[in-house]
What does this fold into?
Amino acid sequence: MSVDLSQFIPSFLEESFEGLELMESSLLNLEQGDDETINSIFRAAHSIKGGAGTFGFEHVTEFTHLVETLLDEMRDGRREITQNDVELLLKSVDCMRLLIEAIRDEQECDRTEIDETAKLLTIALNQTASVDVDNNETGSGTTNQQVTQNTLWDITFIPEHHLVQTGNDPLLLFNALADLGPITVEANCKDLPPITDIDPTELYISWHLTLDSAASEEDIREVFEWVEDECQLIISQPVKDQQDSQQPEEIVIDKQGGDFTSVSSASDSSEQVLASAVADNASSTLESTTTTKSQKQPSKTKADVGSIRVGVDKVDSLINLVGELVITQSMLSELGNDFDLSKIERLTSGLEQLLQNTKELQESVMRIRMLPISFAFNRFPRLVHDLSNKMNKEIELVLKGEQTELDKTVMEQIGDPLTHLVRNAVDHGIETAEQRLASGKPAKGVITLDAYHQGGSIVIEISDDGSGINRQAVFDKAVEKGVVDKNTVLNDNQVFDLIFEPGFSTAKEISDISGRGVGMDVVKKNIQSLGGRIQVESEPGKGSTFKVNLPLTLAILDGQLVRVGSETYIIPLITIVESLQAKPEHINRVSGDMLLYRLREDNVPIIPVCKLFNIDAEHQRVEDALLVVVESDGQKVGLMVDDLLAQQQVVIKSLQDNYQQVEGISGATILGDGSVAMILDIPGMITMAMNNASQSQQKYGDIAKNLEGVMS
Amino acid sequence: MDIQALAADVPVEGEYSLEGIDFITSGEQYLTFMLNDEQYGIDILCVEEIRSWEVPTKIPNSPDDVCGVINMRGIIVPIIDLRKKFNIGEAVYSETTVVVVLTHEYEGVSRTIGFVVDAVSDVLDADESEIKKSPAFGGCVPQHCINGIVNVGDTVVTLLDVTSLQQLEPHYKR
It folds into this structure.
C-alpha cells in the first residue's frame, strides 16, 4: 500500500492531546461506580493506543495499553477505584503526554519517569489478577470466563474495496490477531473481477480466519476497530463440538469506532457488554505491539500548526455572507457598466449594502477566532487537585461560564496570569481544614472561577472563601517598603491595590502574614498589556475576589479619532469618560505650571498632548482646545486636543514588528485614506506625564505628588 | 507532419541565449545610492522595494533621523533618513528623493525599515577580493556600519552593513 500515513500524524497528535485532556478532566471527576466517566476515559485511552499503533509509535502503544488494561478492570467493576489508582492514572496521563510531545518534537524523551510509572501500573495490575475472582458478582455473567479457557473463534472479514486506500493494511490486522493466539487465514478470491476490470488500488479479497485464543469478542473487535466502517465483520463462536454454525452469534458493529473525535460523545452502549481475559491479555499484548513494527518514520512536518476547531455553524454563516457579498459586488459592477447620474441612488444603496456585508463578514471572521474560555479553564482542576494534595487542604473548584467566548490570542496570553491567581488562591487564600473549622467554616474550601461578558469586555472572576487579605499587614509592608507614607490614609481598594506594586513581588514574608503578593505585579502587567485591568475585593474571614477585565479581542478596537496639529491620533473609546469644550472658569493653575480642570466635583489634571509628544498644535492654550477626559486605573486625566473627528473601528497593527515600543503609543492603524495613525496608550501617557513632571522638578515631592494627590 | 523537424526547433533546456542579460556574476551584488554626492552600497538581496518619498506619520518623541511610519501594503514600516542618521548633506525632500525599503533578518527577527536617500544610482557587482577595508580616519559614518569600500572607476563606493543600519536608537527620555 502506498498511502503516506505521515500526513495524518499532526491530526493524530492533536486528537491525542484532546484525548489526554479529556482523560485528565474525567479522572478528576471520577467517582466510584461512575460507568459513563470510566467509559469515556477508556475510550480516550483506546483511541490514543489505536492511533499510535497505526503510526507505529510503539512506546505510546505499550504504555497506553497498560493504562487501558487498568481502566478496563475498573469499568468491569473488577477493581475498586481508589484514590491511589486515580493518582497513578493521572501520572500515567502525564507520561503519555510526555511521550506524545516527544513524537511531536521528534525528540527522545526522558524515560525514567515513564518506566517508573509503567512499573507501578504493572504492579497494580498484578494485584488485581489475584483478587479478580473475589469480585465476580460485580461483573456481568460473561466476565467470569476463565482466562485460561481458549475458544475457537470464526471470523469472517469482508473488507470494502477501498479499504487499503484509507491507509489500512489487512496484514497488520492479522498480525495483531496472531498475537491473541494461533490463527489460520483463508483468502476468498471469488469477488475478484476479470483482469481487465481490476483496479490495483482496490482490494477484492475477503478472508475467513480461525483463531484459537483466550481473547474475548471484545478483544477481537478491538483489532478491527479502525476498519469497522470499511468492512463487514462476522465474529462467531462455534459450539464446543466445532460444528460450523449456520446462525453465528453475530456482532453488529455500529459505525462509531473509526471516528477519533467521537471519543467524547455519548456512550457506546455496546462497549458496556464486556468480556474479560484482562490480566493474562495484558502481558501478551505487550509483546504484540512489537509485531506492528513501525513502517514509517515520523515525517518532518511541524506538528504545532496552531489550528483551531471551528463550529460548522460559524463556517456556514461565513459562506452565506460571502455569498451576499458576491451578489452585491455583481450588482455594483453591473451598475457601473453604463453609469449615468440617474442611477446614483441605486449606487448609494448598493454601497450601503456593501458596507453592511463587509461589517457582518468582519464580525463573522472575528467570531471564528473566538473560543470558549473552557480552553483556559481546563488546566485548573488538575492544578487545584495537585496543589491541594500537596498542601493538605481540601478544596473544591467550581467553574462557571465556561462557554463564554474569548479571542484566541487573549486566551493564550491570559493562561499564565490566571494560573498564578488560582495558585495564589490555593496557596494563601484557602486556610487549612483545622483553621477553617476553628473559624466556623466548612473544612472544604471553595475556589470559584467565573467568566461572563460585560459590555465589550469579558470578566473573569477568581474568588475563594478563605481568610481574605489582611489589610493592616499589606499596609505595614507597603510602609516598610517605602511604597506609601506612614500617614497616608487609604481606602480598602487602594490598600489592596498595593499588592500589585513591584515592591511586593520579592517579599516572601508577606505570604506568611497576609497571603498574596508573589509576582502580582507581573500578573497586573500581563493583564494590562492585553488592554485589561484587574481589581481585588476582599473581606477578612470571608475571602477575596480577583476580577480580571479583558477586551474581547486584540485585533480590533473602537476608537475616537482626534486631531492634534497635523497629526491624527486614536483614543480607545473604552477609556473615554467624556469630551468637552474647556470652560475658562473651570481651569485652575496650581503649583506653578500644573493645570487642573474642575469636572463637577473632581479636579482633573490636564495633559497637553502636543507638549507630551513634542509636536505642533493649533491651540496651545487650554481655553481654546478641546478636552477628552479619559480614565485609566481609576485615574482621570484630560487630554488636550485640537479637534474631534470620527469614531470608527480600527484594526490594530504593531509598531514593534518593524520598529520598537514607543512610550505613550500602544500601536498604529491604517485609516481609510491609507495613512497611518497612532493609537494612544492612555496608562502609558499618564505615566509619561507624571515622569515628566517629576523630572522637571527634580524633587519628587512637588508637582508629581500634587498630581497624585489630586488623582487619588 | 514531420515530428523530427518540429522537435529540432524546440530549444534544449539551457540553450537559450543569455547574451545581454547580466545576472550571472562572480561576487555579490549591491544597490548603490547617493547621499549628497557620495556613493553608498547595500546588499541587493535585502532590498524589498524602492519607493518615492511620501510624508510619513510622525512617531512621538522619536530621534531626529526617524521620520515616522508609512503604510506599505498593510504593514507599518518605519522610515529613517540616512542623511540625518549619518549627518551627510542636507535632508531636503525633492522629486528624486527615494526610500529604499530593506528587509533583513537578524537573530531570528525579520525587520522591514525604509531608508531615505538622495537618489538610487546603479547595481554594482563586487567580488570579495575587490572589497577593501575602510580606513578609520574620521568621517560621519560610524565604523561599525561600514562593511568595506570598493573602487568603481574613479569613485569609491562605501558598502554599508544592513544589520547595523537597522539597529534603532532609543527614544528620547524627556
Summary: DSSP finds 21 helices and 22 strands in chain A. The interface with chain B takes residues 567, 612-615, 653-655, 657-660, 662-665, 668, 670, 674-678, 692, 695 of chain A (CB under 8 Å). Residues 312-368 of chain A form one domain.
